[in-house]
Amino acid sequence: MQSDLEMLLKLQVIDYDLGELERSKEYLPDMMENLRREIEEAENLFHNTQKEISDSKVMQKSLELEIASRQAELKKLQDQMMAIKTNKEYDALVSQIDVVKGAINEKETQLFEIVEKLEKLESDVKDYETRGKEIQERNSRELKILQEKMDSVGSKIQIKEEERGNITVRVPKRTMSVYEMVRKSRGGTVVVPVRKRACGACYKALPPHRIQEIKRGDQIITCDNCGRMLIWHNGESE
Ligand SMILES: [Zn+2]
Fold first, then answer.
1. What 8-state DSSP symbol labels residue 187?
2. How far apart are CA 225 and CA 203, in angstroms?
3. Domain ranges (residues) in the chain
4. Tens digit of pLDDT for each residue in 85-105?
5. Among 52, 59, 78, 97, whose Cα sits 20 to 30 Å from the Cα of 103?
6. 18-168 maps to which CATH number?
7. How far, in Å, is the centroid of ligand 1 from the Cα of 208?
8. By CB neighbour count within 10 A (0-12 exposed, 13-18 middle, 19+ buried), where does 19 fall?
9. Measured in whole angstroms, how far is the alpha carbon of residue 229 from the centre of its chain?
């Protein structure tokens, strides 16, 4: 009987590993998805900033051209001043000059803002590029490792299932069904050691005669409280 329990102890290690492998089929793709998204976000940030820089440069060029053409217009109006004959003509010309000066002022303010913005973007884009490359390299390495894990999950499960089969055929059917029942209802550990004269899982105290039975190890003793199978571990509970 002790050897049945020992086999069940091995079995529950295998079942734990199988559970982990099954769970990894869920969380590995999630982890990989997060790593890919991180790469994509860093790339997008870099490319969007590059796009913003080129758009701002187009805007800068167009403002510079507009200012130059307005300045030529202003020069022409100022030249006309020489030929002014009446006060009325003078007033009209002055107000025309004010309008053009106002327009130049406005465009110069816009140009100044664009130039400032460009300076910041040019410095940001270098950081985004460096960070993007770092993320790309680091996440690609991690993705490769996770992909290898994913690829091997199936064969690892198969190996564990075979190990499981080798054990279950050697354990009496009745014992196996108790094991499966407790595993399903309680989850995780089925065979637990006695600790401080109590069930090692739910801590329910065990009467002395139970402990003697467990020590003898010639039959399967289950905990009255949680139903788990109890095993005696020398030196642990005395
Ligand atoms: Zn218990």
1. -
2. 9
3. 18-168, 173-231
4. 999 999 999 999 999 999 999
5. 52
6. 1.10.287.1490
7. 15
8. middle
9. 40
Separation of alpha carbons 213 and 218, rounded Å: 8
Residue 233: φ, ψ to 5°? -115, 115
Distance from Cα 24 to the centre of ligand 1, integer Å = 29
Distance 194 CA to ligand 1 centre (A): 9
CA of 214 to the centre of ligand 1 (A): 13
Report CA(60)–ligand 1 centroid distance (Å).
77
Q: Which amino acid is at 211?
A: I
Tell me the whole-structure pTM to 2 decimals.
0.72
Compute, in angstroms, the gap from residue 2 CA to the centroid of ligand 1: 19
Spacing, Cα 195 to ligand 1 middle (Å)? 11
Tens digits of residue pLDDT in 26-56: 999 999 999 999 999 999 999 999 999 999 9
